[in-house]
């Protein structure tokens, strides 16, 4: 019952955040944007928070929540938000590492190459002060994806892999929109992949 209720709250407030952004309702967006992570944090804390995987995943959700709050400040919050999401990716990678099964072979080579290729595309469009942080962020995402893929073939691992993939997609869309070319309805695509990612990562604790 609690799991269903918190999942519904997370989903409903995520829809509210996206709808508020579409309607340019700043007050609704500020109110709704952090609430999905609050609900998921409570849900994660009530399931396996004491085990290594659960503890790291709960830490990732908490760091993501802080990053969400900082990103509400469009003028001054980007670097702070980026820092906390970097730490969130490291926390998620650490969670997946506790369930490491085998090095993912070709994927383990392809993902870093793709990550570096994407960074190379962004690099010329970044301010000098952002190049190192964005590179670190790219490496963290890549590491998270590799470790998510290196888990076993359990249902929990499949959920976390899909969540990690959607998280990477959300970050890729965000960076493309910010640094390369504005995307039509960018926040819909960014948040529409970000919130399901966090939901799937949380659900990986429940199966």
Key words describing this protein structure:
9 helices; globular; mainly alpha; 207 residues
Total number of helices: 9
Envelope shape = globular
Spans of at least 5 consecutive residues with low confidence: none
The amount of helix comes to over 70%
* Radius of gyration over C-alpha positions, nearest whole angstrom: 16 Å
Given helix and strand content, the structural type is: mainly alpha
Largest sheet: none
Distance between the termini: 15 Å
> What is the domain total for the residues?
1
H-E order:
HHHHHHHHH
Average of per-residue pLDDT values:
93
Oligomer: single chain
Structure description:
The protein has 207 residues and is mainly alpha-helical. The chain has one domain (52-203). The protein contains 9 helices and no strands. It has helices at residues 2-22, 26-32, 35-45, 52-71, 78-97, 106-123, 128-149, 155-180, 186-203. The longest helix is centred in the last third of the chain and has 26 residues, at 155-180. It starts with a helix and ends with a helix.
Compile the SSE list and pairings:
Elements: H1 2-22, H2 26-32, H3 35-45, H4 52-71, H5 78-97, H6 106-123, H7 128-149, H8 155-180, H9 186-203
Helix pairs in contact: 1-2, 1-3, 1-9, 3-4, 3-9, 4-5, 5-7, 6-7, 7-8, 8-9
